[in-house]
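Model it.
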Amino acid sequence: MLKKLGLFSKESVIFPGDESTPCPPINFRMRSALPNNALMHLQPSWSSAKKLAKKDEEEVVVVESLCQRLQTAENALSDKISQQIERENAIADRFDTQNRRFTRRMGEEFTLHEGVEDHLLDTLSILELNGDLARTNISKARAAFKRLFPHFFPKETQPEIFSELVQRFLGKEDPALV
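Modeled.
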């Protein structure tokens, strides 16, 4: 320990032996290289502390960059979610419009008793019910037109396409009067 402090030996520090004799001065004989020794002991600590500080600064920059990227990603996700909600609302409105049109034309209205608490899915379910009703009624109408066609148009061949079959019955003149 004394060597680390730069003292030559134990006798460098002289304490009084008893109180009757005058006290000699406390003599510290320091090496002239004490500051250099201390500097050599502190140099590795100082350089490692500088390296750690530099590494910490780099990590702070990386963390700030990551925080900025995270904030940008959160904002983009929020915008995307907002756009998706707007789109879903627009789709639900279009489904509602189609449902109202089916209700007016078919004369039957559907309501869901156990909805899923999602307006888009509820309106889609009602639209599917209306679509099923329309398909059923169209196939029944097709069968009826096919049965009536030979009676109204005995000399013509029956068209396979439903819209052409209907157009024959909706011609300019009334087929019942011909």
